[in-house]
Amino acid sequence: MAKIVGSIVTSHVPAIGRAIAGNLQNEPYWKPFFDAFPPIHRWLDEVKPDVAVVVYNDHGLNFFLDKMPTFSVGAAPQYHNADEGWGIPTLPPFTGETELSWHLINQLVNKEFDLTSCQEMLVDHAFTLPLKLLWPQEGACPIKVVPVCINTVQFPIPSASRCYKLGEAIGEAISAWDSDARVVVIGTGGLSHQLDGERAGFINKPFDLQFMQSLVDNPKWATQYTVEQLVEHTGSQGIELLMWLAARATIKGEVRALQNTYHLPISNTAAGVMLLEPLA
Amino acid sequence: MAEQQRVSIPGTTLFDDIQAQKGYALNKMCFSFNDKANRDAFKADEAAYCARFGLNPAQLAAVQSRNVLQLIAAGGNVYYLAKFAGIFGLDVQDIGAQQTGMSKDEFKQKLLNAGQ
Ligand SMILES: [Fe+2]
Questions:
Q1: What separation in angstroms does the CA of A235 have from each of A207, A219, B39?
Q2: Domain spanning A3-278 has what CATH number?
Q3: Does B109 reach chain A within 8 Å, measured CB to CB?
Q4: pTM check: above 0.80
Q5: What is the ipTM of this complex?
Q6: What is the pLDDT of residues A200-229, one digit of tens each?
């Protein structure tokens, strides 16, 4: 059966793409963030995952308001990145792991997660940048992927508790996949930030730090909040922590944090990076 | 059916069913700006481009003003508006500064202060 080797959660701010394109990784503004990754690269070299399941949110590249699925899973042999309107360089296509995609779709719908399957899916910065941070080498991303997208654009947005349960179901489905594959689950987004309104620039460091700690000590901690309460505590885009929560929930039982970085600001955002490894 | 309770957070417009309906045409136009050809068409003839999407008067005025708070009030969603702002080379700190009535440097300082 397939095995989850760990979970990596990280912010996905578009400005990271500009920093990578401009080779700014060692500038004082960027260094504290990029320094989180070399230890994770060494870990990836050691554990050698074959597949990445990437839990992310689309920002209006693949989905528009005409059709807005709450949960969707990619089932494409290849995923293309595309222009999102601000001309950051696009990354080469990503190779899908369709066997796992369909396994997840079958298992999850069976468990009453009525998700949308996508045999074509454009992937935006929230998907591409974390993979580029984790596999920074030239050319195509070296491991196969399965995108899992959660709606954070339009209310109603699924609750923290529901996203946690989705993560648990993904974890169980991966563990039931008849394969020798080693799977890493990536969650992207957050942490606290707000782009819109008079409250733009809102950041909540104490809440972010408590949330990050909770992923190790008490992973269901954030499920006590409604989405509206999360907006209050973390800003209107801070609710992207839902992706972290779902990714963490794929690991049954306890974890240890092999990497834990919090740095702000990047652009308008408090940025976090964690590498969580199952204890069992 | 009982009206669902709407939550109010100062300085924040939750993009709910009301906003999603009100802002549909505006957001659809902004979504089209994912394509460079559409960004160029907008720049070449703004009025004609807006007409294709059937913006209402409030949306037209908001587009003309380049005012983000006004665009949000007209139903705009920030993820799509970011593509509109991109046409003018504005990043999220420019639009943050504009919405909070600060200079860009003041806005950046506010973000730095959040780390203290
Ligand atoms: Fe985002």
A1: 11, 21, 29
A2: 3.40.830.10
A3: no
A4: yes
A5: 0.95
A6: 999 999 999 999 999 999 999 999 999 999
